[in-house]
Specification:
Number of domains: 2
Order of helices and strands: HHHHEHEEEEHEEH
Radius of gyration: 19 Å
Number of strands: 7
Strand content: 5-15%
Helix content: 25-40%
Largest sheet: 5 strands, antiparallel
Amino acid sequence: MDKRKTYKQDRRYIHPNLSLIENTFSSIVQSLESDRSFARNIAMYGSPLSLIMCALAARLVTSHAVPIDTTINPRSLDEQGREKQPWAAHDVQCHNEADFPGHADINPSMQWEASLSFCASDQGKRIFTTYHDPAENHYPTVFRSRYRWKDNWKINYDFYVQWVAGCRTAFGAQRVDDPLLSKDGKPSCASIMNENFKKCNNGGVGGATQVGCLLYTFNGGKGNNLLTVAELEQRKIYDEKYSITRGPDP
């Protein structure tokens, strides 16, 4: 069945504003049909309305053309019976300081500067969709935004964002810089990362906050690689298979 025909048949379920940009939506579908790698295709579609369109396109391209749920109901289920997460920020989960042996001290003002730097970077402006769900196994390692900022003393301020494995909300996509698409822009990417530091009394090593289906993590003062040992090994296998050469890790 033509996926665009499916879209037109089901458009009565879609928010009426989307009808104003049907042609743009169709071009997204065509692009995704020719290349299923969302990491390369959706970067150019950054507005709140087009973000919802990307979620719809994801459903169509993966043959899950079902009516979109435009009501945010934290108790509702998706088509596979998974409970949807609330379209909101959860409480900060602080790291165990014992997991950061010998960590360096983190400067509060520099942590805020580092948070702003991450969120203004390309890593902080990504759009994640259900395609990036680690449970779907589309990537050799967990698809994350990874960013390392160093202060004047070469201390590491590490930032990560990823889709929570198996998670679903009423929408299938989220922006790192504005995860809830709120009118006031709150919570912002920078405020989430800063509170991962400020709300944890653990020597400055930070914590993690889930917002919708995105997990925002700040690690303070850790001296190892941005990737775990397991991820480095998985990446090595992947790079050798596809003859990929990378520059040095930060």
